[in-house]
């Protein structure tokens, strides 16, 4: 059975899809950095990225925030879900603890809670619209290339629909 994981990046203010991808992985853990890169190429470097716990990946969050232009808001998982192997585990665990504490602090602030609540009204409804309003079920085209093409077309349809409502 072929299985894919569809990704979307939605701009908070406009609700438009600014990044879309289909991957073969069952998790989102490795997708933060590639999706932020895609958004940067499409519309410019984002100042803030709101993601769910599934995207928690300490090295990727650090890489995204390294430029100092993008802040990541990602609620930490109850336990670290990225366990490295090798002799550098102790140093990694310390960096992980620091980053996770920083994330908890960001999300517990009034501004952080306010920003993170916006995720519920931006990204999640888009998936609901795709499944409900467009009656879009499983991807129909075969292969990763076909699945990507189909997902990009669905994303384009959502954007066209949103723009048509605004201009009507």
Please outline the helices and strands.
Elements: E1 5-10, E2 17-23, H1 32-43, E3 48-50, H2 58-65, E4 71-73, H3 89-108, H4 110-117, H5 119-131, H6 143-167
Helix pairs in contact: 3-4
Mean pLDDT: 86
Low-confidence stretches: none
Largest sheet data: 2 strands, antiparallel
Number of helices: 6
Strands of the largest sheet, in order across it? 1-2
Give the end-to-end Cα distance, rounded to a whole number of Å: 43 Å
CATH topology: Nucleotidyltransferase, domain 5
Number of strands: 4
What is the approximate shape? globular
Query: Any idea what the CATH architecture is?
Result: 2-Layer Sandwich
Structural class comes to mainly alpha
Compute the CA-based radius of gyration: 17 Å
- N-to-C series of helices and strands: EEHEHEHHHH
The percentage of residues in β strands lies in: 5-15%
Roughly how much helix do the residues carry, as a percent range?
A: 40-55%
- CATH top level is Alpha Beta
Number of domains: 1
Protein described:
It is a single chain. The mean pLDDT is about 85. The strands form 2 sheets. The protein has a two-stranded antiparallel ribbon. Strands 3-4 form a two-stranded parallel ribbon. It is about 50% helix and about 10% strand. It has a single domain, classed as Nucleotidyltransferase, domain 5. The protein is mostly helical and about 170 residues long. The protein has 6 helices and 4 strands. It is globular. A hairpin with a 6-residue loop joins β1 and β2.
